[in-house]
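2024-03-11 09:14:02 DEBUG pipeline.ingest accepted 1 chain
2024-03-11 09:14:02 DEBUG pipeline.ingest length=138
2024-03-11 09:14:03 DEBUG pipeline.predict start
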Amino acid sequence: MADEINRTPPKTQAALLEVMQERQVTLGGKTTPLPEPFFVLATQVSIEQEGTYPLPEAQQDRFMLSIRMDYLNEAQEVEVVRASTGAGEVSLDKVISGADLLEIARTVQAVRLPEASASTLSTWSAPAGRRSSRRPTL
């Protein structure tokens, strides 16, 4: 989890991108591969705020999803504060192993996708600048 990645200097952003691209982390000259599977969650703050370093488009393309969120209204903010304070008991149960998840991913990758489906999925997921007039309404 990387919070406010556009507040970090470019060297730190490069380290995060190494993790994402190379599936390894380098610290003090020692490189360590990451266990599979892994994923990265990252947040950015509004680019209008002081002290931000915009991510180049080539780096933004490495993220599968980009979700824009507006600021919370006062009632929502109060709810977040209430939900995130106090000692609460959390119980998590493992539902799948990493090895099983990787096997499912390999099975999905082996499925042949019809051309029409590939075209539709590409249209849905294309960046706004590349979308065509045949974009479906979701």
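2024-03-11 09:14:41 DEBUG pipeline.report The chain has a mean pLDDT of 81.
2024-03-11 09:14:41 DEBUG pipeline.predict end
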